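Dear colleague,

As promised, here are the two records you asked about, laid out in our usual form so they can be pasted straight into your sheet.

NAME FIELD: protein one
SEQUENCE, THEN STRUCTURE:
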Amino acid sequence: MVPRAPRCRAAWWHTLVSVAQQPTNGYAERLLVPWWLWLLGLGGAAVASAEIYLGAPGFATWVPYLVLLPLTAFGLWWAGRVTVAVRDGELWVDDAHLPVRYVAEVGVLDAAGKRAALGPRGDPLAFVVQRPWISGAVLVVLDDPADPTPYWLISSRRPERVARAVRAAKAADTGTDAAGTSPAGSATG
């Protein structure tokens, strides 16, 4: 049995970008595939279909087009079906959900921070939903002793809004404001 390396609460977290503490009523976004990737994918499938048939006569000429183009369209749709939402005191990413009471810290990663989090410094037990066509990401550090997952790393076109929504949901769950202080002004941790 290979010993597991000790968990490093990563030094790359210094690349977290600060987010203004503005309250929000939730958030939802879909990680759609951009239009130019649709053009590239369907164009590549059309070229591959033209190469596959190689001059076959009759109906066989259209079979590669009838197979590859719909399969490519389905694959592109499938890649862009993931939804990121904060609602009812939970962070939802596709069908996975995390109650905000288990969130210790949430921050925004720029492109360099996202690369570092996905690289060799990242924890293999992290929950990652990454889309390469989206440069921003949200890092949600967990505080659940029963869960070995140290953090969630989620691609987002508007990571600041996701972070604000998670903070607001956590504040509503714990009875503090979005900055993490109780109404009396004392820190709640």
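NAME FIELD: protein two
SEQUENCE, THEN STRUCTURE:
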Amino acid sequence: MTTLKIPTPRVFVPLLGRSRYKGAHGGRGSGKSHHFGEAVIELCIQYPGSRVVCVREVQRSLKESVKRLIEDKIIAFNVGSMFRVLNDSIITPGNGVILFQGMQDHTAESIKSLEGFNVAYVEEAQTLTERSLEMLRPTIRGKAHEPGKEKTIAELWFSWNPRHASDPVDALLRGEHLPPDAVVVEVNHSDNPFFPAELEMERDFDEQHRPSRYAHVWRGEYEPTAIGAIWTREIIHRNRVKEAPKLTRIIVCIDPPITNEPGSDEAGIVVTALGEDGRGYVISDMSQQGSPKEWGAKAIAAYDFHEADAIVAEVNQGGDMVAHVIHSQRPDIRVIEVRATRGKHVRAEPISALYALDKISHVGAYPELESQCCLMTAAGYDGEGSPDRLDAMVWGFTELFPKLTRRGQVHAGPRPQKANNRYNPHRPKSNRAKRG
């Protein structure tokens, strides 16, 4: 018999029993992820054969998941002989399993593969969309751990740093009406007896020098809304959709970084589209740090995957460099070079007006991009660094809605005449055309 000794901070004690919903919200350094990572290990040992899926809204790679954290807990508890760590999953006692997935990758059909799972642990739950929450809740039904016994475990666990009261997880677990059998705790760094000295230095620095961000980052308060912000989360949420209609134009947009050094800004790479309904859609955010060759390859991959009509790129910093980077790898791609003659906030205002008029939707969730939107004000960007994702998106919709742009300011070259009517971002991968 294996006995685990897990020192548990007092604030998490209400979560130790069995409940359909368990939630922990708060700021950085509170130990939320550590608690749920330990709870996963404990469940799998106590109930052999347990099936657990660890999800987040968007997971581009396993590096973004809690897999490494859970592996570290297995080592720390000295139970490595009971678990088998694979590249994309962990086999648990009794031939159970721990999976790591992104909800945005699931469809109404694929989510059914999780119906026999006992626990879904949602990390960074503030980014979970209403669509994902609606799919996940009825899916987790559990299974009996012993043949012939009716008792099952079917639970949903959530940890998150709150952004806004309108976020679906907040509306569900902090709203006026909690779902049945829900236990939710608020936890912050002051509740964590294992709060490390290194984080205390960071917390103290932010308290002194970043007061506008401190309450959100360290106390788990809602994301501050920049004074005079020209986007709001309510508007973005209101227009979010599960899938786009038939698309008539698709544009890959690049806002290139000035330098390629450690800590440099990202290359904003956002895919925007115009639907046959006349509305705009954000269908992908593939922004990344890296060399020109790396972000150029990522932009070309987005162009091929989405069967885009052109790549739009800002050339203020790089001159002809952007087109050269693209054409050195794929000379046949049409690159529309645009040059900024006004400030970012001035270019962004007409696009934010389209959002306010319910003319633009996000297909799925893009947390980093949406955070940049909500920090753009009529006086400028109120966040740290450069809003590269936002700037790329603005260039895309400026190209797709030319009447909002002063004549001669943005466009270069004739517009493509042939509409891309074949594109469906939700068709099976096996049917996606490959372009050489």
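A couple of things worth noting about protein two: The first strand starts at residue 21 and ends at 25. Confidence is low (pLDDT under 50) at residues 407-423, 425-436.

Best,
R.
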